[in-house]
Amino acid sequence: MARAGLTADRVTEAAADLADVVGFDNVTLSALARGFGVADASLYSHVRNMRDLRTRVAVRAAAELGDRLAAATAGRAGKESLAGFANAWRDFARECPGRYQATQMAVDPEVVAASPGHQRIMAITYAHLSAYALTEPDLTDAIRLLRSTYQGFFAIEASSGFDHPRDLQASWEKILDALDSALTHWHVSS
User: Fold this and answer.
1) What is the pLDDT of residue 123?
2) I need a surface site. Which of 106, 107, 155, 158 has the fewest CB within 10 A?
3) 11: left (phi over 0), alpha (psi -120 to 50) or beta
4) How far apart are CA 83 and CA 180, in angstroms?
């Protein structure tokens, strides 16, 4: 019998909230159980194990990020879409750091295939680059360039590693300009 109001969705939501406070890697079933005022064993009625809980948080976070990316790129193309996408992703990383970490978790391919959020992120990622008219393998290379640039920036920003008087937002905008230029003038593979 489930504890009053305790469901897999509530446990997942609480884990996502906790991840934003303590970091995705620091979420434990014990901490969640304490938050609910139940014994650790009570959570196993709702999640199989820690891997299951982490996967559920990753799927939830992907859906939330996908919604933000869709709103930020809708009706936009080229640099405007690129900036909308990048800014939405950066805002998500800053506002929801644990959830952002969850979106970086490697999940099983069958989970990705069944996850509307993961599928939406992939579709938006490819769609927002359509104005640059890249085809494979260049499209994959461009996505890897963007992802590593964004994730590197987010990681350094989160750790306060940009210890320089230069305005961080100005640097971010310069980076987006450079990425747009790189995509616009991409040397196509032969």
Assistant:
1) 97
2) 106
3) alpha
4) 9
Phi then psi for residue 41, to 5 deg, are -60, -25
Per residue in 43-96, pLDDT tens? Answer: 999 999 999 999 999 999 999 999 999 999 999 999 999 999 999 999 999 999
pLDDT band at residue 1 under the 50/70/90 scheme: very low
d(CA 24, CA 60): 13
DSSP for 52-115, written as a single string: HHHHHHHHHHHHHHHHHHHHHHTT--HHHHHHHHHHHHHHHHHH-HHHHHHHTS---HHHHHH-
63: which residues sit within 8 A by CB, 6+ positions away?
Answer: 115, 116, 117, 120
Query: For the chain, what are the domain ranges?
Result: 8-184
Rg of the chain on CA atoms, in Å: 19
Q: Which CATH architecture does the domain made up of 8-184 adopt?
A: Orthogonal Bundle (1.10)
> What is the helix, strand, coil percentage profile of the chain, to 5?
75, 0, 25
Asked if 68 contacts 124 with a C-beta cutoff of 8 angstroms, the reply is no
